[in-house]
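Lecture 7 notes: from sequence to structure.
We start with the chain below.
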Amino acid sequence: MSLAEMVQHNHGGDTGDDTPDHTHNYATVVGVRQGPPGGAESLVVGSTGTTAGANNRHHHPIPNAGNTTPFNVVSPTVFLNAEVKL
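Predicted structure tokens for the same chain:
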């Protein structure tokens, strides 16, 4: 059964308000340095930084899912006509 074949439904709600006054540290990886045979590889970092926080609180609604599209529930079946001579 695909998502479209599921009965249309709603999980309700949304993601709620986020906390915009926070930041994240990040590093940009620009390559991988090959180690010696049998040794470990290491990442090559191009830059690092800190993200800026959002400037207002927001939320994301959770949309409806499913489309109530009809679907077949019969297993694939093959019928054969055979005559038997007695």
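Points to note: The radius of gyration is 28 Å. The first strand starts at residue 25 and ends at 33.
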